[in-house]
Amino acid sequence: MRTIIPLAFLFTFVATVLALQNTIPVTMRFMLWEYKGSIAPLILVSIAVGSALAFILAVRYRWYLVYEVQRLSAAVEARDARIRILNEQKSVQKFERKSHLRKEK
């Protein structure tokens, strides 16, 4: 996390410099929409949209990992409880077997 924030600032700085140095007028058409102007806003908007999508996917994946950890922790707790019950039953059976052998002698 400590390296991500400085890298994000560096990326933002480089993207801004790139956009500001490319002020060539362009015409962009998309279906019925048309944009005439500098290429700088297009570069910045493209970077912002890509960053937002990456952030949304990263948060979604993080939520998935948290859910998986909780689910697996619950499964481990259930397994441990089952093991404790089986060990107690095994101890009781050993005790009963020993006491039964003592009675036969």
Structure description:
With 105 residues, the protein is mostly helical. It has one domain. It has helices spanning 4-21, 39-104; strands at residues 25-30, 33-38. It has a two-stranded antiparallel sheet. Strand 1 (25-30) and strand 2 form a beta hairpin. Helix 1 runs antiparallel to helix 2. It is rod-shaped.
Indicate the radius of gyration in whole angstroms. Answer: 32 Å
Q: Span between N and C termini?
A: 70 Å
Based on secondary structure, the structural category is mainly alpha
Give a short account of the largest sheet: 2 strands, antiparallel
> In DSSP terms, counting alpha (H) and pi (I) runs of 4 or more, how many helices?
2
Short précis:
With 105 residues, the chain is mainly alpha-helical.
Properties at a glance:
105 residues; mainly alpha; two-stranded antiparallel ribbon; 2 strands
Outline the secondary-structure elements.
Blueprint: H1 4-21, E1 25-30, E2 33-38, H2 39-104
Antiparallel strand pairs: 1-2
Helix pairs in contact: 1-2
